[in-house]
Design brief:
Helix content is about 40%, strand content about 20%. It is α+β, with helices and mostly antiparallel strands and about 130 residues long. Strands 1-2 form a two-stranded antiparallel ribbon. A two-stranded antiparallel ribbon has the order 3-4. A two-stranded antiparallel ribbon has the order 5-6. A hairpin with a 2-residue loop joins strand 3 and strand 4 (about 80-85). Helix 2 (about 10-35) packs parallel to helix 4. The radius of gyration is 21 Å and the shape is flat. This is 11592_t:CDS:1. It comes from Dentiscutata heterogama.
């Protein structure tokens, strides 16, 4: 902002380009999560995390498998839990988490079309294709 206000357009543009480039990997992770329900975080730095201690057949799978990354700190002998998410995304964090979970669920439910003449819904769950190992 200082360089923009003082008329240093070249420096302002260069800094803006660096900011844009630094966001690309992060935006790709968000995009992949929302569009496919897959969490690809090789460096373990994304604000969403997959729980390793929840089994696929657990009743808590869909609620607990993916969470917002959190940290615990002791403040005045009281344990405090804080969510680790970028401040600029805070209003959207719940929606981002939900979208990825919903996409994850939809991708895990494989369906098949049923003949139109039968008296069952057009799309029916096929138990042989249902796989929880996502």
């Amino acid at each position: 902002v200082h360089h923009q206000m003082s008329g240093n357009k070249n420096i302002f543009m260069m800094l803006g380009e660096h900011l844009d480039n630094s966001l690309v990997p992060y935006i790709r992770m968000i995009d992949e999560w929302i569009c496919t329900g897959k969490l690809n975080d090789p460096e373990n730095e994304f604000f969403l995390v997959r729980s390793q201690n929840v089994e696929n057949m657990s009743s808590q799978y869909w609620q607990e498998m993916y969470k917002i990354r959190e940290t615990r700190a002791m403040i005045d002998n009281v344990e405090s839990v804080q969510l680790l998410s970028p401040p600029f995304l805070e209003p959207l964090i719940g929606r981002i988490l939900f979208c990825g979970k919903a996409q994850n669920l939809l991708m895990s439910l494989k369906t098949k079309k049923v003949k139109i003449g039968e008296h069952i819904p057009f799309i029916q769950h096929n138990p042989e294709e249902f796989v929880l190992d996502i």
